[in-house]
Design goal:
It is a single chain. With 183 residues, the chain is α/β, with parallel strands linked by helices. It has two domains: 3-76, 2-Layer Sandwich (Nucleotidyltransferase, domain 5), CATH 3.30.420; 83-102 and 116-182. The protein is built from six helices and nine strands; from the N terminus they run βββααβαβαβββαβα. The protein has helices spanning 37-51, 56-61, 72-79, 96-99, 143-155, 173-182; strands spanning 3-9, 13-20, 25-31, 63-70, 85-90, 124-127, 130-131, 137-139, 160-164. The strands form three sheets. Strands 3-2-1-4 form a four-stranded mixed β-sheet. Strands 6-5-9 form a three-stranded parallel β-sheet, with helices on one face. It has a two-stranded antiparallel sheet with strand order 7-8. A hairpin with a 4-residue loop joins strand 2 (13-20) and strand 3 (25-31).
Length: 183
């Protein structure tokens, strides 16, 4: 029997729904494991295998579709939690995250307190590079700047690094090279 599996990882519980080709459904819930959400997911899959009288390997082999959703990122935004993260971006654009030009609540209120960004300014690092709106490299990646920030990132005990250069969706060569240098 083939299955479709839906998984929703929340802050407290991880919910599962299993649907067979014949339309039979099973729902299940496990405790979430915020330190490593995959533990709660794998635990739940093991338990679903048991519920269907299958070994783990047999059960997983019969899953043809997995749909995954999570509120972990939303919770991180709301609580300012999550991994200590640095942002590496195009020089001159490190404040774009905080400026929020696309979403400006109460833009005429001079006393408005904006939300605290997930990455504080001292961990948002601008690197010399530039790709234009057509994907052409205008300024080559300054690799020495990347190499020079590695020790700083280690000193700050950074747990995650977001590499987000301007127009990289058109040409990600600088993002890929940055990741290579950071490793």
């Amino acid at each position: 029997m083939k299955y479709k599996l839906g998984i929703d990882v929340g802050g407290t519980f991880t919910d599962f729904i299993l649907i067979s080709h014949s339309g039979e459904t099973f729902t299940h819930k496990t405790l979430s494991t915020p330190e490593d959400p995959s533990i709660g997911v794998i635990t739940g899959i093991h338990e679903l295998a048991s519920i269907t009288n299958s070994t783990f390997d047999e059960f997983v082999a019969r899953i043809e579709t997995i749909v995954h959703g999570t509120t972990v990122a939303t919770n991180a935004l709301l609580t300012l939690g999550g991994a200590k993260t640095a942002l590496i971006t195009t020089k001159g654009f490190r404040d774009a995250l905080e400026m929020r030009r696309g979403i400006r609540e109460e833009q005429y209120n001079n006393h408005y307190q904006n939300v605290t960004p997930l990455v504080p300014r001292y961990l948002r690092l601008g690197i010399e590079e530039r790709v234009d709106s057509q994907g052409n490299v205008l300024t080559t990646l300054n690799e020495s700047e990347i190499v020079s920030i590695v020790d700083y990132l280690k000193e700050e005990n950074i747990e995650a690094i977001a590499v987000c250069y301007l127009n990289a969706y058109l040409n990600n060569v600088h993002e890929e090279r940055t990741i290579q240098l950071l490793r």
